[in-house]
Amino acid sequence: MHSPTVNNLQIEVATTNGDYSVSTNDTLANGLFKMGLDVTTRRIFPSNIKGAPSRYIIRLSDCSLMAPNNRTDIAVLLIEELAGEVLDRTVSGGVIVYDSTSSLGEKLTAATDGRTGSEEFYREDCVYYPVPLSQLAATNFSDSRLKRIMRNVIYVGVLSQLLGIKPAAIREVFKENFSDKGKKVINSNFTALKIGRNYARQQFAPPANYQLKEITHKTPRYFMRGNDATALGTVMGGCTYASWYPITPATLHGENLERYAPRYPLIVEQGENEDSCLGRALGAAWAGARASVSTSGPGLSNMAEFLGFSSFAEIPVVIFNIQRMGPATGLPTHTKQGDLLASLYLSHDESPRIILTPSTVEQLYDYSWKAFNIAARSQMPVVILSDMELGLSFYTIAELNYPEQPIDPGKILSEEELGKISDFERYRDLDGDGICYRSLPGKGPTYVTRGAYHDREANLSEKPADCSQKIERLFKKVQTAADSGQLPSPVLEEPDGAEVGIIGFGSSIYAIQEAVGLLREQDIQVALFDLPAISPLPTAELQEFIDRYKTIFVVEQNYTGQLQKIIQTEFAVENKLQGIRRYDGDYLTAQYISRYCRECLEQ
Amino acid sequence: MSSSDQTVKKSYTADDYSTENTANLCPGCGHLLIVRALRQALAELQIPPEKINLIAGIGCSGKTVAEINSNGLHTLHGCAAPVAMGAQLANPEQENILISGDGDSWAIGSGKMIALLRTNLDLLYICENNGTYGLTRGQLSPTTKMDSPTRCGTVSDIPPVDGIGIALVSGATYVARGFSGRQKLLIEQIKAGILHRGLAYLEVFSPCRTFNDHEESHHSYRYCQRHATDFPRISVVDVEADYPTDRQLDPEFKFEGKKTNFGLKFDNLNEIPGYDPTDRNLALKTWEDYWTEQVIPLGLLYIDDSARAHHQRFYGESDSYIADLRPEETRPSQSDFSTILEQFK
Ligand SMILES: Cc1ncc(C[n+]2csc(CCOP(=O)(O)OP(=O)(O)O)c2C)c(N)n1
Ligand code: SF4
Ligand SMILES: [Mg+2]
After folding, report:
1. Assembly ipTM
2. Contacts of B337 in chain A (CB under 8 A)
3. Taking Cα atoms as reference points, which of A144, A178, A194, A164 lies closest to residue A32?
């Protein structure tokens, strides 16, 4: 008899999109978090409002792993379409909870009874828990919508009883979520939870191989999604104007800001399209606001002309790009990291910008507030590249800190300062760092800010010398940013004896961290370089890292190896780089990465 | 670049709004006459140049931003509207004036135009309509009339966009039609548009001397002189005057402006019996009649001073704007931060 695994399992719910189960599953995950466990979630759902198959994963880890696992321990089966694939993923000894009062349920019951015809759904090595979910909901609740919602809460009750999830923790989440909806709603949820718990207690013995134990932490921990972190970072970065246009998976960032707006000096507007959003942000920034926009792939493409304008007219702005699977419409609800080169080169001709690539929720928050200082200081667009996986998944994170840097307005001269200067020129590089002093409209001298070439005094100019100086100075600002100390530094993990390195960014990092652990168990030591930016690249650190290891794996979620290309153009890398890529819209897992590494190294 | 010592000056003349730069427009271009009227209007209103934001689209029209002493922002083709929206919201204290062409507004910028017109953003929008693309040398514009050929002989076989009609139905609260060749009226229209609280759409017939001022053009000086009629002719009058209230009988009305009240004198309202420029349905109906008859009415068709300006949705009656915040005021405090974090625990 094995001892049970403690606080280490993956729950997977297979259901239909739009059946209200997402919020129930969020509640379950949050309840587990409130027990002090390390929890992360993933949604695998189609671009559809109601009716198509969808999955929800909750992973608990006893060592803070935050990537999804490719193995499931506890499956909740509510629809037939996904039953086969979920059962394939379920581990030996796994738990299968299903709605016995559904057509799938009848088949599963038949299969467990050993009747012929439904063998495909039978796993001898798993434990089946039939629960009449629909029937319990139907007999206890009257309204048809409520019946559907409460079916979900009932399975949460069942899981709570089977796995030892504290009902108090779940009840607390219900109370928080429905505080504005009143006692009746809260009580219905409480009742359904209890129905599930009671049923499971009366009918089943809990599985012997899984156990959950509450943990008390001394320091605060938070449960948030990437889009919660970027929105919080936006507010803490001192953003005063934000514009957005709904698009999956960036919408949540914008809606979060809408909720912050009434309480802080922040104006949030839904624009009429993405280039207008960026245009509005740039107008606001020109007039003196700290401005941002948020979008995903198609919206980014839409912003192309204004992105170049921002760079050329030297108006600061922060652009959040929550990447999704493209091109064109692509798959809006699937993750990818395909916009590196698009973010780097979007817009005609050459226009420098800064591009940050946060990897964890803590970094999403940190880089977001920093981005506003960097943009203001550099008078340049700063793109934050997040992705759908980071944006929409919940993660358990440690303390977030109040920004340690004060708000940096950049080189803006006040009216008093301008009063003392008789020879102000908007585009004179006084400090030799490429960044010129700004004045704000209404608070200084008059001149034209424009997207056309100009001289130091901001007058239109076609003189070759003015043109070359302008473009050289713009690019110099990227180097200035790199030297400024304002940019985030790379995060390195370099164990003794490592001969192999991995470079990655964005959501891949969680899977890479876990893969490094898996490889270590196989006596392969791997160093990790968590890349904070692709423009400017952390040149010195990256070169040293590349020099130090025999083989470097570049992990990224796109087909052509965009990051690898960027590195190869900048550095002498010989034949050291090997790409590990995923571009099928599915989440990257540690197993995917470690298997590839091992195979490559064995060759 | 002009230094900011203008702030100590007591009164401004039209010359104070000129610059040492030129937009390099063709001699006789209608847009240059708008520049002239604009400078004169600004001088009459005594608005310091540094208090003016001039936000321009791309075209010969937009290029004139170089010739007006103000905070200029020369944006992208068809994109001045959103930029002006952001600028105005960040700092509604500034007088925001937007300069655009007929192509800039009604072809490439048409979606953005509707979005702007809906908002009642407090600014003056000047659409310089010459029925052609001046800067790209005379192609069809969305306002080109059907039987009016371009430089290379192309004739449009689809009806033109009716900017005034769209402005009226989209929610502009000041809709006026001017003509570069009618300076006196134009100056009054610009002044009233600036004083107005809300979105003032002023479409100015502004002939392109080089590409669209020929015999067959519907946007030539001659065509406009021939087909124009003055209605409803306005002038801005003393703000302090005592205003009557019966719009049917009295030619002078008082309006609530963005900063002060102002009076408008309507010279010839009685030419259309019962015409009330604050009645939008009447304005629409009258405009439609003119449009079908191909008459160009020059005047102020519609004004509504009762609507809330867009920035008031965010600021209410407060005059503390985001552009005025000190850097540290833009970030929530440590205790606010802790409160926010509570919801994620
Ligand atoms: C995105 C984009 N497309 C095309 C152009 C080229 N372009 C410049 S001005 C213009 C048309 C200008 O016409 P209008 O707005 O009527 O202004 P006008 O020159 O007649 O005053 C065009 C097509 C451009 N600058 N940007
Ligand atoms: S081309 Fe036409 S619109 Fe342009 S400057 Fe010349 S006359 Fe004016
Ligand atoms: Mg034109």
Report:
1. 0.96
2. 236, 402
3. A164
